């Protein structure tokens, strides 16, 4: 059997992908030893990511060729707009990050890069381009979350960040994204490859930045 298109993209980025999913951030999150200021710096940046992420999801809904796909993407969008945001707010409170600290911190380069990449993918009006970025943003997160050893750390800030990215609903959504990319990606292969690779590079840089830019 020939290689799935989504898998061929992942393999083309194997080295960077593996460095991201085995990152120090993932290791320290999993054993609960991550420093509070690293976790805070990471979450402040990640919370900013959500707005452009919704632009990307909206573009995927708009450019998809199928009603059935739009329903799946729409249900996921509703979930992100609802429950997802409360984790951030509870985590900021537990870590002592007030609104002023959150607002003051500038976007790091990887955050700015990711926001631009998601909006660029949305602007292509190509379903394949949006799927390439979504497959990285979701698939790479599922991959690292599934590698975290169980039992999970006791603090909810750590444990919930893992279970948000490794639960049955998310597993099913990532499988959907892969199947969609396999279906429409080959007709737009160069575009999909380009967006996929830039997204993987940014995921690694995003983890690195949490250690470089602490809130202090
Ligand atoms: C840098 C970065 N990349 C990917 C994700 C994963 N992610 C982004 S939005 C979203 C939807 C709801 O969970 C998910 C899973 C992240 N959080 N941060």
TrEMBL record:
From which organism does this entry originate? Luteimonas flava
Q: Which InterPro entries match?
A: Haem_Oase-like_multi-hlx (IPR016084), TenA_E (IPR026285), Thiaminase-2/PQQC (IPR004305), Thiamine_Salvage_TenA (IPR050967)
- The name this protein carries in UniProt is Aminopyrimidine aminohydrolase
Q: Which reaction does it catalyse?
A: thiamine + H2O = 5-(2-hydroxyethyl)-4-methylthiazole + 4-amino-5-hydroxymethyl-2-methylpyrimidine + H(+); 4-amino-5-aminomethyl-2-methylpyrimidine + H2O = 4-amino-5-hydroxymethyl-2-methylpyrimidine + NH4(+)
Which keywords does UniProt give here?
A: Hydrolase, Thiamine biosynthesis
Question: Magnesium as a keyword?
Answer: no
Q: What is the similarity comment for this entry?
A: Belongs to the TenA family.
A Pfam family this protein belongs to? TENA_THI-4
Q: Which domain of life is it from?
A: Bacteria
- The Thiaminase-2/PQQC domain sits at 13-211
